[in-house]
Amino acid sequence: MDIGFIGLGEMGGAMASNALKAGHTVRVWNRSRDKTRALADQGASVVDTPEQAFAGDAAFSMLADDAALRAVLVDGGLVKHAPKGLVHVNMATISAALAVELTELHAQHGVAYVAAPVLGRPDVAAAGKLNILAAGASEAIDRVQPVLDVLGQKTWRVGSEPQHANVLKLAANFMLASAIESFGEAAALVSGHGIETQTLLDVITNSLFPGPVYQGYGKMIAERRYEPALFKARLGLKDVRLAIAAGDAVNVPLPVASVVRDNLVDALAHGDGDKDFAVLGQVAARRAGR
């Protein structure tokens, strides 16, 4: 396929690289041009404007947050002036409100739109093992499925309303944050009673809670190893705030999310915003005087 990729951070860059390795023709654009160099070495065409990337069979965007997405896609007029026949695949984690707005904007201008946020950190993206939550018209998803197949291990088709994929992603990230918080608190509890956190980790991950969340984040908490960050605490705070806002929009209280938000704010207040999400374990230990 002939595709464009807009946004080449750790996630976007890894996904664009995998598309190139699979033989797709890829045009790339990023605000900071230095992030395009490695992809250019792999065969990507580096373009000067987002409009040049927003062309071909499909355009994939992986921008950092609502503000970046709005500046490029909405205020920059990309959707309004999209070429006929293009499918836009937005893979970013965004607010529920902007998700609805983008769905309406694409419909207004007759642009096929797929929301496809992902589950997985940059290392998972690099390995092509993401779980992709895709929503939109079936025919639009079908058209981009060959690319999605090389970006992730599974595409979960979660409905025809694009914004539903974004809300599901917020719900999943909220659950992830809650799991990290609960392990951090449990680690502080057992430590207070003289039990090694590693013992808790071994028991839990081989009985009640096997799987990547506790095995990965729990291991970092047990080792008190929060750098280098695979997913930064400040980005986790952004996602938890988005989940709370999505709940507010439909009068759904998320009291656990509020606790996690406050503890992430605590982490940032102590200068730990660029440490891994697992730094919630350090917050719990500090609160317990450990």
Alpha carbon gap, first and last residue:
54 Å
Shape, principal axes of CA atoms: globular
Helix count equals 13
What's the number of extended β-strand segments?
9
What's the CATH H-level homologous superfamily of the largest domain? Answer: NAD(P)-binding Rossmann-like Domain
Query: Which CATH-level-2 architecture of the largest domain?
Result: 3-Layer(aba) Sandwich
Q: What number of structural domains do the residues give?
A: 2
Which stretches of 5+ consecutive residues score pLDDT under 50?
Answer: none
Structure commentary:
The chain has about 290 residues and is an alpha/beta fold. The protein folds into two domains: about 1-160, Rossmann fold (3-Layer(aba) Sandwich), CATH 3.40.50.720; about 165-285, N-(1-d-carboxylethyl)-l-norvaline Dehydrogenase, domain 2, CATH 1.10.1040.10. Helices cover about 55% and strands about 15% of the residues. The chain is built from 13 helices and nine strands. It has helices spanning about 10-20, 35-40, 50-55, 65-75, 95-110, 120-125, 140-150, 160-190, 195-205, 210-225, 235-250, 255-270, 280-285, and strands at about 1-5, 25-30, 45, 60, 85-90, 110-115, 120, 130-135, 150-155. Strands 1, 2, 3, 4, 5, 6, 7, 8 and 9 form a nine-stranded mixed β-sheet that branches. Strand 2, helix 2 and strand 3 (about 45) form a beta-alpha-beta unit. Helix 8 packs across helix 10 (about 210-225), helix 8 (about 160-190) packs across helix 11 and helix 9 runs antiparallel to helix 10. The termini are far apart. The model has no long low-confidence stretch (mean pLDDT about 95).
